[in-house]
Design goal:
- This protein is α+β, with helices and mostly antiparallel strands.
- Helices cover about 45% and strands about 25% of the residues.
- It contains 6 helices and 8 strands.
- The chain has helices at about 5-30, 80-90, 130-140, 155-165, 175-180, 185-210; strands at about 35-45, 50-60, 65-75, 95, 110, 115-120, 130, 145-150.
- A 4-stranded antiparallel β-sheet has the order 1-2-3-4.
- A hairpin with a 2-residue loop joins β5 and β6 (about 115-120).
- The chain is elongated and about 70 Å long.
């Protein structure tokens, strides 16, 4: 039996090395994301021989640097449903501007269906004060200080969608400056100076009242 020349076997080896290199790159990309299982639901379908079970998973994925996404997946087995939800979450990730890399730039509201959420910025050391599904979003996104409240529903799907509705409407000083055609320093100085003006006005009111 004739042996295959080395020249003909070399491309296959190169392809194997390339595939192995691609798999290593994909593994490194997956390592930079953090995923959390928010909710899993079991559904039973009654058929002519009994009941057929299926599972639906809700997963949140983030990189702890301001990017976050959510996804849903359905399958006959739990691991497969989680895998589908994770892949969908990675495809639908959004970037959220963070103040000092730890909290939101300003208070914001969001809603979806019967769900209403209120997200408020917080000083350093506050921590994450939020419910289960909302907490998963903030932890995977990398937020360290935030106060959040959800009213109107306890459905995790609606809570997650209302939270993302609020997050996508957040603006940073850089975004506002680009829209108004100004410098970032002017926007930030005005925001910081507003507290000083309010404090001076309150001080003047106290002096006039004491007189």
């Amino acid at each position: 039996m004739a042996r295959t020349p080395n020249a003909e076997r070399t491309p296959d080896r190169g392809r194997d090395r390339g595939d192995r290199r691609d798999r290593n790159v994909e593994r490194e990309r997956d390592d930079e994301f953090v995923d959390k299982l928010v909710h899993i639901n079991r559904v039973a379908k009654v058929v002519k021989g009994g009941r057929r079970f299926a599972f639906a998973a809700l997963v949140v994925v983030g990189d702890n640097k301001g990017r976050v996404g959510y996804g849903t997946g359905k399958a006959r087995e739990v691991p497969e449903a989680i895998r589908k939800a994770t892949e969908q979450a990675k495809r639908t990730m959004v970037r959220v501007p963070l103040r000092e890399g730890r909290t939101l730039h300003h208070d914001v509201k969001g809603h979806f269906g019967a769900g209403r959420v209120l997200l408020r910025t917080a000083p350093a050391g506050t921590g994450i004060i939020a419910g289960g599904p909302m907490r998963a979003v903030f932890e995977t996104m990398g937020v360290q200080d935030v106060v959040a409240k959800c009213t109107g529903t306890t459905n995790p799907y609606n809570m997650i969608k209302a939270t993302f509705d609020a997050l996508v409407s957040l603006n940073s000083p850089r975004m506002i400056a680009a829209k108004r055609g100004k410098k970032v320093g002017d926007i930030v100085a005005r925001r910081e100076g507003s507290g000083t003006v309010d404090g001076a006005a309150e001080g003047a009111a106290d002096v006039s009242a004491s007189e």
